[in-house]
Amino acid sequence: MLKSKVKSISLAGVALFIAIALIKFPRETLEASTRGIDMWWGTVFPSLLPFFITAELLIGFGVVRFIGVLFEPIMRPLFNVPGVGSFVWAMGMASGYPSGAKLTARLRQEKQLTKIEAERLVSFTNASNPLFIIAAVSVGFFHDAQLGILLAVCHYTGNALVGVCMRFYGKDTVEMSRRKDRKVSIYKALQELHRTRLKDTRPFGKILGDAVTNSVQTLLMIGGFIILFSVFTKLLFLVGISNILAGGLAVILKGLGLPPELALPMFSGLFEITLGSQLISQSDTTSLYTQAIVISFILAFNGFSVQAQVASILAETDIRFGPYFFARILHGIFASLLAAILFKPLYLNKKVLGYQDIPVLLPKENPDPWLDALHTLQSLGPAVTLFSLSLAALIITLRLTVKQKYL
What is the mean pLDDT of residues 47-57? Predict the structure, then answer.
């Protein structure tokens, strides 16, 4: 009873703090909200929407089941998850967080995963996409594409190591795990594809419409969290809480042999990755080695903003959030250690061999393809977002009209 009362008072206190801070800092709140909206409107929505819609179609048409049968002999021994986990892992790396959580929850709802298998899978399939790591962070903030290679290798290798460690999670739990034969059979995979497609009796138009509307609804939720945490992080800084908590983090960093000047940027990165990465690149420390270690940690930790998105997605299922949060800390440790170990062979040695830092203003005759891709996405993103929102609204309106017609 006491615990419940303390929780109620704490939640009310946080809500009251946010309300008072919003009233006290209206201009700064507006700027933070605008920054969050720009990020969602121009980059997050258009980059994730195609992956979400494609994933929904692949699940509906049985292609994911087909992939699951083929990759069962690989995924089961390595990560102790069904073969369909290979699809989630690949899509999670290609599209970025929170795609892994979205697809894991979807497969759990389809009963293609047990509860324990889903908790294992979601722990290592939420990764940052290469475009963000190389273009936004490395080229955009540090003007150094070679650093992006180091960060990407540390990030994805650390993710795989987390998956190997989490294979032992829930091993003592009794679960009805569907263990497939270790032999690869294309004929059996095609049979599963056909059976899965026949189970879904929806016509193609309904499947496509559901894919669009479900994806847009999820991305609207993600946008809300991005804006909320953008504002919340700014308010913590304005009222001085960030500096107080960063002081404790500075003690930890000093104990680990890292510059305490990175404490405040790292603290911001624990809430919102993009802001934290930008602040780390602008920090007073001149050691790129320590900056790479800290950025590797916050990229792996995902940030509380992404974690809140994942928690919201998992809340629709029986998948628990705890294993995912533990895996994020584990991933952060692995990625940081890998950055410390691989900094010389993957970065310093490559620079000595002739790789040069990329200037802020890239010459037109030698553009960086990753930065070009990011700029293209940012220029076309708003149009894609507006078109997709309009299409989803049209589909919902037509369905409501047809439904009312037959009532």
Answer: 90
